[in-house]
Hints:
- This protein has 7 helices and 4 strands; from the N terminus they run αβαββαααβαα.
- By secondary structure, it is of the alpha+beta class.
- The chain has a 4-stranded antiparallel β-sheet with strand order 1-3-2-4.
- A hairpin with a 2-residue loop joins strand 2 (about 70-80) and strand 3.
- Helix 1 packs parallel to helix 2 (about 55-70) and helix 2 (about 55-70) packs across helix 6 (about 130-140).
Amino acid sequence: IAPPHVxxxxxxxxxxxxxxxxxxxxxREYFQLLRSRLAAGGIVTYWLPVDQLLVxxxxxxxxxxCDAFEDCxxxxxxxxxxxxxxxxxxxxxxxxxxFRALWSDAALGPTLRGAGIESPEQMGALFIAxxxxxxxxxxxxxxxxxxxxxxxxxxxxxxxxxxxxxxxxRAWA
Length: 173
């Protein structure tokens, strides 16, 4: 069996959602557009800078992403720069043998090692949560949508606010 197609396209890394005009790149409708352009079984990654968001903001974005991607998960990038991962109809997780073989693949192995992920165990250590856990964290929070972009326009920046959100994000991670 031939290895899956490997791409080195960059992940989705828009500016932070609080930057002027950017909030629409974090809505359910935008995430649905991303999914509609993926091939069957395709994967998308998307930057989530939680250190710049209040917990309700993050919940709204998580709800939007998981509404668009039935197979959604959250991964650690660096500190509080996390990555949303969604697939377009991925049937089942890769088995451990297939997963380990990615580091031996001529195209993907060097890319993984170049990103500082030298073994499958290191990749596994970056995993934060799957859809079930994300839905639990979201609770009843409404998703960020094109019709309600102001759901994440809470003021951030004071030391007291950061003291409140960072412990929540640490617990999630």
